[in-house]
Amino acid sequence: MVDDNRLQRAVLRSSLTRWGYRVEEAGSAEEAIALATLTPPDLVLSDWMMPGMNGLEFCRAFRAMEREDYGYFVLLTSKAEKTNVAEGLDSGADDFLTKPVNSGELRARLNAGERILAMQRELRHKNRLISDTLNELQTLYDSIDSDLVEAKKLQQSLVRERFRDFGSAKLSLTLSPAGHVGGDLVGHFPAGEGVVGLYAIDVSGHGISSALMTARLAGYLSPAAPEQNLALLRRPDGGFAPRPPAEVAAHLNRLVLAEVETEHYFTLVIALCDLRTGAVRMAQCGHPHPLLQAADGQVRQVGQGGMPVGLIRDAEYDEVAFQLRPGDRLLLVSDGMVECPNQVGGIIGEEGLIAMLAGLADIPGPPLLETLIWSLDQRNPQPDFPDDISAILFEFSG
């Protein structure tokens, strides 16, 4: 309470202490500033007209002080003109009381100030809770982000060889998740003497659960552990022979539906390529049609579509066979390439991909895959690919 009139302070102090307030008195604005610096008040009652620093100047100085909580400021004045009220509000006052002060009106104004201070404290408390929660979420996000970076490295390590020269054929692979991790997987495995197995997988959905599914499927088609590879059969002499691709797809379908508790399914292309003759046996299970590019640059689709794996119990899968001649090459792509957006609001589509491949007939191996992805990126109006990108290129030289 700030007033140069001691009698006025005594009258107000009597009422305030009776109402339960703890009151600090000051006879001038300068003295009040010193008191407010030591003990920041919740509410201030200040006379307007005082010698030295007046009430408006004191209000401005009070508002300029650093403090954690808000202070409610009431000016006591005999001025009632609207211009004086506006000047007081501009200086930072919250309310006004006209002298002589009515006890009931004073109590009502202080009650209003207390309600505002209570709301301010509650808001500050909630803001602190929000800030603490955001800090916890940021810490959690940083931890998850770090884990996902490591998970991406592990998923990329599933494609151990991005290029392999078999002498009579060359194999190139690419895998690029849309996020940290994704549901695409490509790979190859030895499938008996002079035969290499290829597989391209696209698990439904995106993110961590899809990536975990690809990791499990990688174990089922592992090149490092042929005894665990579902695409191989052990021969009587202890060696391994390839299982027909359609049979592999059916076996994976039964396994996923019976043993893997997940709502995910996946599309698949699995092929057996004879490195000596160029003969290919292949099953296509919901995956985009593989593209066969002849030595003269002509491109055609191979495969019959088929059902995805892990979707329908007892699904049957067909097998196709075709012949690669020297100079031919086989391209397996995920739907992230086929369904990549274009600049006119549609998608690239299989026809668009065929046209792109036809125009790149002279580019071999990994540079072809890099150029395809670059070409897709140039046509994509979005800053990033909306889906995972993966592909296998098998080039047969004979």
Textual characterization of the structure:
The strands form 4 sheets. This protein has a 6-stranded antiparallel sheet with strand order 4-5-16-15-12-13. 33% of the residues are buried. The mean pLDDT is 90. The chain has 2 domains: 6-124, Rossmann fold; 158-396, 4-Layer Sandwich (Phosphatase 2c, domain 1). β12 (291-293) and β13 form a beta hairpin. The chain has 398 residues and is of the alpha+beta class. The protein is built from 10 helices and 16 strands. It has helices at 6-18, 29-38, 55-64, 82-90, 103-157, 208-220, 245-259, 335-338, 349-358, 365-379; strands at residues 43-47, 72-77, 95-98, 163-165, 169-176, 184-190, 195-203, 232-234, 240-242, 266-274, 279-285, 291-293, 299-301, 320-323, 329-333, 389-396.
Which key features would you list for this structure?
six-stranded antiparallel β-sheet; SpoIIE family protein phosphatase; rod-shaped; 16 strands; 22% strand; 39% helix; 2 domains; Rossmann fold; five-stranded antiparallel β-sheet; single chain; Phosphatase 2c, domain 1; alpha+beta; 398 residues
